Amino acid sequence: MVVGGDPLLELLAVDWFKVNERFDSVALHPKSLVQSEAAKKLPFILVINLQVPAKPNYNLVMYYAAERPVNKDSLLGRFIDGTDAYRDARFKLIPSIVEGYWMVKRAVGTKACLLGKAVTCNYLRQDNFLEIDVDIGSSSVARSIIGLVLGYVTSIVVDLAILIEAKEEKELPEYILGTVRLNRVNPDSAVSI
């Protein structure tokens, strides 16, 4: 369990897609939650698109929303409108295997990972959203770990916390942007898109 107070953003939805090729810019797809009339009225949406290399490939897409406009001078505001290098140095994920085989728990660990330093992240900033496409296949280590996880995914429960890493004293404490619990995900339930 990751403890850190209430998240700044609210989880709206999670999509689980099956695709032949890597799928970037999910938020621009006409059937994306971001393109709905209700979502267009939200002040801000953060889209995390975890691209899982497999046969077929999968995309785990998480949508988080702000209830009010984001302060441009806040850490989140600077992250949203920052450069890719700024984002890469700060975009952090903390995994926790709540239930699962010890081998998977050991491989995944519980240490925070700066995703922009470990794998390739592409950022799409438009209108009221920021999408982060996380290419897990861009790292042989990450690809190996996700391959192991996929073998046991129907029997594990994973908590994920998403943060922006503080680099200066004035940015502390770090706040959790969003969380999600993935409970025994079935690869066969992925929707083709």
UniProtKB/TrEMBL annotation:
Protein name: Protein ENHANCED DISEASE RESISTANCE 2
Domain called Protein ENHANCED DISEASE RESISTANCE 2 C-terminal: residue spans: 4-185
A Pfam family this chain is assigned to: EDR2_C
PANTHER family: ENHANCED DISEASE RESISTANCE PROTEIN (DUF1336) (PTHR12136:SF47), ENHANCED DISEASE RESISTANCE-RELATED (PTHR12136)
